[in-house]
Write a structure and sequence with these properties.
Elements lengths: L7 H18 L25 H14 L8 E5 L4 E5 L5 E4 L3 E6 L2 E7 L6 H19 L10 H20 L24 H15 L12 H13 L5
Parallel strand pairs: 1-5
Antiparallel strand pairs: 2-3, 4-5
Helix pairs in contact: 1-4, 2-3, 3-4, 4-5, 5-6
Amino acid sequence: MAECPIDDHARQWLEENLERLRSVLGPGILQNRPIVLPTDAFFPFAYDGSDGAVARVFRTVCRLMDVNPDRLKVFINDDKQEFWPVDEDGNPIPLEPGGEFEIGPDGPSVSIARSELHDAALVVATFAHEIAHYRLFEAKADKGDAVDRELFTDLAAVHLGFGVFIANDPRVWLAHADVWPGTDVLMPRYLSAEMTTYALAMTARLQNDPRLPWLRYLDQDAVANAKANLRYLSLGP
């Protein structure tokens, strides 16, 4: 049998939390929800990086995630750096957040950094993650300060169909304090491509669908990870 590309802690976490997401957000990709692809069928418009195009992507992602886009305000932010968390030597790691979800005095909002706007797929991935925060907030399932909060939010975006975009844009970095609870095994703060494609491979196994229509839309590294996961689940190729 092929070796599992992800460690046992990651595999168990994925399987348990995909089931939890089904209970809090309703049917997902493991229950025949379509996997969103970067095609005209899902995004039937041109993208030129303009504010209008960004707004159209936002509204489309909202609808695909079962969110009324009028319930959320959306902003484009000038790029900024935050210093959080720290590396192994205790030094701050400079981060440039791609997006943010906030609950302000005027209600919930989503923002995206201007540096993201050059790439339509990156815009989709960022909005999918931030809108997943909103879905979890609405469902009273947000993990608050839990160490796996961002990981769980990424998985919610995958559960709701955006695994291809998350796999192609893995925002993975390891902080000194991030380990799987009760272990000394490092835990990514966001889903790695290996973890995301494991979830996608699980859909192929459960749906018994040998066509794998999503596979051709993965980037080169994500394709390699997906094929390794498919081999582990005895699905090839």
